[in-house]
Amino acid sequence: MGPLGAADARYPGLMWLDTEATVGERILHYRLRQGMTQEVLCGLAGGRTTEWLRQIENGKRQVDKLSTIVAIAEALRIKPALLLPGPFRATTNRGDTLGTAPNTVPEIESAMLRYNGMSSLFNIPDRVTVSPEHLKIRIEKAFFCSQTERWSEMAPLVPDMIADAWHLMNSAKSEAEKRDAGKLQALVYRVTSGMLDRLGEQHLPWIAAERSIQAAEQSEDPLLIAGGAWRLAVVLRHAGRLTESVDAPVFAADALRPHLDTPEAYSMYGSLMLKGAVGAATLNDHRAARDYFKEASRAAEKVGDRNDFWLAFGPTNIAIHQVWLSLELGDPGRAVAESEGVPHENLPIELAERKVSHLITVAWANFLRGKDRESVDALILARMAAPEQLLFTGRVHSMIRGMLKRERRSVKSDLRKLAAFVGVAD
User: Fold this and answer.
1) How large is the average pLDDT for residues 289-316?
2) Is-contact 394 84, C-beta < 8 A?
3) Which residues lie below 8 Å from residue 230, measured CB to CB, with a gap of 6+?
4) Average pLDDT in the 281-291 region?
5) Spatial distance between the Cα atoms of 198 and 392, rounded to a whole number of angstroms
6) By C-alpha distance, which of 206, 199, 265 is closest to 232?
7) Residue 309 near residue 267 (C-beta atoms within 8 A)
8) In the 8-state DSSP scheme, what is residue 203?
9) How many helices (H) and strands (E) does the chain have?
10) Where are the alpha helices (DSSP H) in 199-285?
11) Phi and psi, residue 15, nearest 5°
């Protein structure tokens, strides 16, 4: 069965969508469902040409900006998430655990349901309360897996971490113990939100991010509260809530200004300003994007490359974001040129996610320029550094599908290997 699935009897000629439908196929589906012509949709979505939309719908052109998806969704009067592919599915044909993280999502969802404010409605069994030190060790391992994109290794850890963090909080006997438990619970939910977001879940990442902030507020730690806002900003942007994806990190950064007295505080502050720049760029607010980026750059100059709160903040991450911003602001050629000055080879193994995110950005910039050989080469390097990041990154799937459609002899063999690896059908 193809991505458009079986016919929908309610709308003659219209097909059901499945989770693998492309953005273009989804736009076509919802446009036809509303009986809207290409001319009308183009007019409502900012005056695009019908030829542009036709190429999007038939897969000959990619939607290269989230802001474009949001504009089309608003014109169709639907949520932006409906135009994005659904959650990733587990891949089980490799003979190992690679790609199996989605199998654990139901168990994580169950843990999130049981161990929250509704816990009094459930018969929560007695559980041996682990020591804070034991939970810290697992949290550190989870963040290592997160920063190295080892999701199928991390996923089985999450349900027990959620349960143990809840029991620590509810067994605390003093205000100090509650604050300490709140710190750990905030980190558990922050790293959980990041994993669920990577796996393409639409609602759970938001819930986990909000719980991270709530737990951080109980800890009374301003840096942890800011870290929760940083994670929420990522989720908001992916959900198409673009204005809020700027407001959340910028307001959090403003609240942090009185506390800028340590390198850790500057790392958090700079990371928040980077998220503000990302959100502003997605909104096509060039001035705000550059202003926030400059502020983040100043913070990076003060602290150098660090990994406080697992944020990988510093001049190298600034350089990586500079390339991304140039691409998001519509200049793939400039992005490619700037990428040559990014020392991603020097990043340590524990920051593989940063390296691979950069390589995917470079691949996408080259893909948009029709440079398939350069794009494939970047993806091959990315696969060697963090294979699961390719499996669970929608842009990689879109790129490979696009290159398969215009398959060129110079990349045929390598491209087909990549397609087989990520599970993209020819």
Assistant:
1) 96
2) yes
3) 249, 252, 268, 271, 272, 275, 311
4) 91
5) 6
6) 206
7) yes
8) S
9) 21, 0
10) 204-219, 222-238, 242-256, 263-282
11) -110, 150
* pTM, rounded to two decimals: 0.85
What is the per-residue pLDDT for 90? Answer: 62
* Span of 3-7, 56-60, 154-158, 357-361 with lowest mean pLDDT: 3-7
* DSSP 3-state of 425: coil
- Mind listing the pLDDT tens digit for each residue in 2-17? 454 444 444 444 455 6
Residue type, 383: R
Using the CB atoms, write b or e for 391-406: b if 16+ within 10 Å: bbbeebbbbbbbbbee
How many angstroms separate the Cα of 337 from the Cα of each of 251, 365, 372?
33, 10, 16
In this predicted model, what pLDDT tens digit does every residue of 16-38 receive, in sequence order?
A: 566 667 788 888 888 888 888 98
Polymer length in residues for the chain: 426
Tokens of 424: 């993209």
Q: What is the pLDDT of residue 7?
A: 46
Say if residues 157 and 142 touch (Cβ distance below 8 Å): yes
Supply the angle between the helices 158-171 and 204-219 in degrees, to the nearest 10. 30
Report which DSSP code applies to 125.
P
**To 5 degrees, how large is the angle CA 373–CA 376–CA 377?**
85
Burial class, 173, CB count within 10 angstroms (exposed 0-12 / middle 13-18 / buried 19+): exposed
For residues 382, 386, 387, 392, the Cα torsion angle rounded to the nearest 10 degrees is -100
Helical (H) or strand (E) element with 332: helix 332-339
Amino acid at 82: L
49-63 pLDDT per residue, tens: 888 888 888 877 777
| Amino acid identity, position 163 | A
- What distance in Å separates the CA atoms of residue 66 and residue 63, rounded to the nearest whole number? 8
- Which two three-digit tokens encode residue 21? 């439908």
- Describe the crossing of helices 372-385 and 412-422 by its angle, rounded to 10 degrees: 40
Q: Does position 338 have pLDDT exceeding 80, yes or no?
A: yes
